[in-house]
Structures
1.
Amino acid sequence: MPWTKDRLESVVRERLDGLKVVVVANREPYVHTYDGDAIRCLRPASGLTTALDPVMRVCGGTWVAHGSGNADQAVVDERDRVAVPPECPSYTLRRVWLTKAEEQGYYYGFANEALWPLCHIAYTRPKFDRADWVQYVEVNRKFADAVLDEVGDEPALVFIQDYHFAMLPRMLKNARDDLVVAQFWHIPWPNRETFRVCPWQDEILDGLLGNDLLAFHIQYHCNNFLNTVDRSLESKVDMEHFSVTRGGRTTLVRPHPISIAPELVAAALPADVAPEAMRFRRRLRLGSVPLLIGVDRVDYTKGIPERFAAVDRLLTLYPELRGTFTFVQVGAPSRVHIPAYRHLNEDIARQVDEINWRHGQLTWRPIVLLNEHFDAGQVALLYRIAAGCVVSSLHDGMNLVAKEFIAARDDCLGTLVLSPFTGAARELTDAILVNPYAVDEFAEALRLALTMPPEEQERRMRRMRAQIADNNIYRWAGMLLSEAGKLAGARQPVGEPV
């Protein structure tokens, strides 16, 4: 039986047995901003929010997040709540307010200058600052207070998202031992030797072992976590059942690869693609040449300089390809308050200028770099009209751009060039897999993407579309919440719900 919203709703009703569902994430699914005197509600471009919003529409409950919009406080009630989505409210958004100092220390500091580079093999050195660590712990405590206020005395499942909240599970369990606490760690978990460099490794591991269920994208990351705990903490690690017992309490560690809702990507496409595509091409003076695309936050883990180096190498090896295609990179600036990100933006702009100068002809540019936000409709259009999409992450937990590109290709054409260092590569085996560090191989992969016969494109795309249709976001949520429901004493056993 395929996984749908209705099936997930049935699973939630049967398996969670009346538990209130509370999702905790740093990023909010809807942001309110001022547009002159009016207030606009926007959906941020985020793989996490894109994945979880359809789940929360089904589950109801509450999403607790940092209120980041400049009009967020103007629309909440006296308890900092607002009903979302605005067009058809189905769950509650509870906003947590952070000071500039808290945001700097917790988010830009410890989360993204320490944990993010520590967990990604992208050869960026983590920065460990005690003041940032103190803010990280205090913000986790602030979120714990908000969650506890939301659940009151009710039985609840608290579903925590990502590396921003390593301390939160233990805080919640210390306050309410009866809560069911599950966490999905969206980024990789490094090997135990790498994690040892963190000065607060024991505190982080103990915080995460406050979870009843801790999930990662792939088994390899589960194994890394278990090996890290085994090396660092006094506990019983069971590699046969993938669990850790510490202080008399057991944490299950499981792989649950996240996905998307393909129908929502398809729904974002314009009703008539051709005129919208023409307007897009005209605006950027792209002519009618095939387009290769990249859609990423500007982050050093995404391999953007590596893909541009491959374009440079391709045009050097095959100068006859000059003027025959354009690489369009949508790269919304990210975390520019962090020096490593600011320098990356500068380096990428300089690299594009050099490549365009070296290979450009008259009005043709090999690379068009768009440092701007694209909404869901614009991104879906770009996916739909591209000859190929390039995902060259140096290290990635999953990467949902790869899956969104496939979902948008209702024509069953287009090619996906995919790094093997993404979780998605384990599922999307019909992509063109290439090591982003191997520039000559990467260049040849781009050439293959541009020259693959339509019948071969269709054969590969049909299989990948079937894969993401079967393993969609509703299946991810259903399997994960079913397992959490079992821990809460739900009536039915874990497995594929019926």
Note: The chain has two domains: 5-259+473-487, 269-468.
2.
Amino acid sequence: MSIAIEAIRAFLYREARYLDDRQWDEWLTCYAPDVTYWMPAWDDDDRITEDPQSQISLIYYPNRDGLEDRVFRIKTERSGASTPEPRTSHSVTNVEVLAERPGAVDVRYNFHTLSHRYKVTDQYFGTVFATLRQSEDQIVISAKKIVLKNDYIRQVIDVYHV
């Protein structure tokens, strides 16, 4: 099975749009139930952490349940860090297919997100490594590793920032 690069790009753009438009339920459909969603931290030697089980991560969800809980908190205003919700604008660039195998494709792409809240606009940027697979009639993310390249983050980072 091969997923065309045009379909991959369209999927990644749609996922970013769901975040920008705060379409949380639709955004969740982009993720497989067994997805691993991970944003490692930078260690003191300027290297990203390698094990979410034993080292610090900025975000780590071993499956979609964590993402669903996060969305529930955002939607029900049970997240002080997300109230009021920021306005975001995601840009996805440099989409590359790294590997293809039966049933899955590994991709790498860059992102740049502008986030506006409390009269301040912050920028987040980095690289995402994701595994996509065809699930019934749609593409879903089965693994996502987000390498945030900002040196300084002045607030709590959340799923809508990346």
Note: The helical segments are 5-20, 24-28, 64-75.
